[in-house]
Structures are given as C-alpha cells and as structure tokens.
UniProtKB/TrEMBL annotation:
UniProt keyword Signal, yes or no: yes
Signal peptide: 1-29
A Pfam family per the record: Poly_export
Name of the protein in its database record: Polysaccharide biosynthesis/export protein
Keyword Aminoacyl-tRNA synthetase tagged: no
Amino acid sequence: MILSNSRQTGLAKTLAVFAVLLGSSGCTAFLAPRDPFPATPPEPPIESSVPRELEKVTLPRYVIEPPDILLVEGVKLVPKSPHKIETFDALLVRVSGAFPDKPIDDAYSVDADGSINLGPAYGRIKVTGLTLEEAEDEVRRQLSQILTDVDVSISLLQSAGAQAVTGQHLVGPDGRVNLGTYGSAFVAGMTIEEAKAAIEEQLSLKLESPEVFVDVLAYNSKLYYVITQGGGFGDDVTRLPITGNETVLDAVASIGGISQVSSSRMWIARPAPNGVGCEQILPVNWEDISRGAATATNYQLMPGDRLFIAQDRYTAGTATVAKILRPFESIFGFMSLSTSALNQIARFGLSNFSN
C-alpha cells in the first residue's frame, strides 16, 4: 500500500511523538518482539548504589498487609463502667471483719454458675449480671449473716472479654484483624504504630482507655521469587519470604542449589517501585559468587524480586528434539507392529496367528 505524502507526513509526526513519550519515561522501548528466554540477560549499566552482600541496606518501614500475622497482647483492657460482671471474670475481693484465720483478700474467678467461691466458711455468692457496686452490696449482705461489722471492696482484675484480644491475629484479605467480641480493625497499609492506634481505637468503643502491644509475628506479605527454567519440562517457581537480609546466594541455597537442567546464567528482575520508573535487570555472575567469593553481583534481594535461573541449552535442546520425535516414534512403532502382524498372517494363516 502506497501512502500519500500528507499521510506519510502525519504518520511520521505520530511516530515522533510516540518516540518522545517513550524516551521521557526513561525506559527502553522494544519495538520488536523480545526473546522470552535470551541466551544472555540484558546488560544495563550496574549502579554502584545497588545493595549487595557487603553493602546491604535496611528495608523501609514494614507495612502490614494480608496475610501477615500480628501478635496482640492486652496491656490495659478495662470495660467501660458500669461493667456487668460476667462468667470467668477475675475479681479482687477484700473483706474487713472476716475471721482472722480465714481472711478474704484474694483474686476470685467467677465460675460457670455465675458465683464466686469464698471458701468453706463463707460459701458461694452469685454475682453475674451485677455491677461492682451491686456485687459489693450482695457480698456484704451474705457475709453479714455470719459476720459482724463487715466492709467489702470488689474491683475487676480481668474481664473475660479480654481473652479474645490477646493472641495471634491473621490479617484477612479485607485488610482487617478480628478482635472477637470487640469487632475488627483495619490495619492493611499501616506500620506497627499505626496498627496499634487503630486497634486501640476499635477497642475504645467498649473499653475504657485500652492499651495493647502489637508486633508482627509472621512476615507473610513481603516475598521474592526464584524461577528455575525447566529445560523444556516447565518452569519451577519458589515463593520465599523476605526477612531483609537475603542475597542471591541465600536464594539459591534456599531451593537446594542449581538443578541438573539449569545453567549458571541467572539474573534478577526487579519491578519498578509502585509502578513508577523502569524495571531493573541485574545480571548475576554465579561463577564469581560461588567459586571466587566475589560480592559484586551477590545482590541483596528486595520484596517482589524475581531471581531467574536459565536452563541448560543442551538439556533444553535435547528435550525439544525428543518432543518433536516422540509422535513420529509412536507412528513408526505402530506401523512396525502392524507390518509384523500382517506378515505373520500372510505366512502362517489367520488361525496360527490367533493361536
């Protein structure tokens, strides 16, 4: 098809604008299809600032994401007043005027029947559903039957509802942690301090000035990947967590070394941060790392990195040839078997062949 001069000029302008846009992004434009498994990885200039074995950097502040596991411990979990005493609450009961040899000054748990057991001399007193003041009046009334000049003080040591807060909490797909009877708090995208504030804010709906301790128990959301090309038999992908100290050598060790179908050609494919800028390809010299103890390409791995280990060319070529020849081998085998059967029929007859 021949374009007119005006159309050619318009097309040239369009291509020029497209080239400027590509150049302004800072990324190399590939106008032709690229080989997905090149013989050697691209060789971009390696910046000296890229972290490596002897020049590691600390990762940015950890941001909580699903499916991290948080450890939450209650430091101060006091229900808002007036608190109604519940089963399995822990109460501190102090009584003046009790028998000298049988004092009442200890912590008592509210049993399943809703009562506290003050001992054989005093018996059980039911307190569930009462406020602390009402419980004091009830205990005073019961003890007044066997004691004189009784004064009772009851305070809450631990609420049974606090048991649902302390422990391990999985950050769900919706970015929230379940706090049991106190609801759930959204913590995805937050630091530990921000998550602590969010959890305490949720707890404050039912508790009086709550205070909790929050830490990350399992770092499950920050990962890197080791992709081993399978020599024509499919690629293996291993998903490993980032702890902030892994290098290329650690990654290879974590998968048990280089497989029989792999070569020593490998590189790191590093995604652009938050999709801004260009992806990085960092060539790795495995021979220098493993045999020479060189650290120049033993890079520190970052979240999202892909360590790609290329296949052995000879093994891949052998597998490709085997795949191509396998159908023909089946056809030739079937034809050979059929020819042999027909020859036996023609030579000995169908009855002998059947026998």
